[in-house]
Amino acid sequence: LTEDIDIVYIETPTNPLMVEFDIARISQAAHERGAAVIVDNTFYSPIYQRPLEDGADIVLHSATKYLGGHNDVLAGAIMTNDAAIYDKLFYNLNTTGPVLSPFDSYLLLRGLKTLALRMERSTQNAQEVVAFLKQSPAVKEVLYPGKGGMISFKVVDESKIPHLLNSLKVFTFAESLGGVESLITYPTTQTHADIPVEVRHSYGLTDDLLRLSIGIEDSRDLVDDLRAALENE
Questions:
Q1: What is the pLDDT confidence band of residue 233, given thresholds at 50, 70 and 90?
Q2: C-alpha dihedral sign at 185, 188, 189, 190
Q3: Does 179 reside within a domain?
Q4: Nearby residues of 186 by Cβ (< 8 Å), 6 or more positions away
Q5: Beta carbons of 16 and 205 less than 8 angstroms apart
Q6: How far, in Å, CA of 37 to CA of 55, rounded?
Q7: pLDDT tens for residues 21-42?
Q8: Do 146 and 216 have their domain in common?
Q9: Domain termination site, one of 113, 133, 162
Q10: Which range of residues forms the domain containing residue 28?
Q11: pLDDT in the model for residue 232
């Protein structure tokens, strides 16, 4: 950090390697140099993490994900506890008009009513899925921060990934996350396809990595689905 830096932008945990960062320490260091801190809190939601309470200045959410929770609305959310920042954001919102339609607003408010319950269930399911993945002979590494519904894992044989994706019955092969349905994503060809290969590989996003968004189905169905796809030729 140097004096000419205005913004420190972090995502924690990161997508898709699930690395967690200390928001309080980063915020303190940034503020000592006059920089503001923006945190993408999409993965944990306010149920598991409240960055403003840890010193962040702005918090962002893809409300399409956990806040909405049903894969049926496109939305974003921004929070701040700084009055000056709020006034600027409100002015821009009011003058440029990037607001949700009434029905989309209704869908998002509906989703928020069940956020805590959905996060609790997805975490319980994710922990059971992680326990299975860690003992599967087809998996060589599991990346999970211990809470939330997002899991990444690396397979032993990446050539079998197409077969795996085509074999799943309960998981849907799709890019989004945070809904009541469980999804599987292959970042190499989907979410991170536009990042050069050498850059992806340099920080660990290798071609053997898959990302799961765990929903609220019965955990036994999720584990059985993964077992059949991973371990049956």
A1: low
A2: positive
A3: yes
A4: 161, 165, 173, 210, 211
A5: yes
A6: 8
A7: 999 999 999 999 999 999 999 9
A8: yes
A9: 113
A10: 7-113
A11: 79
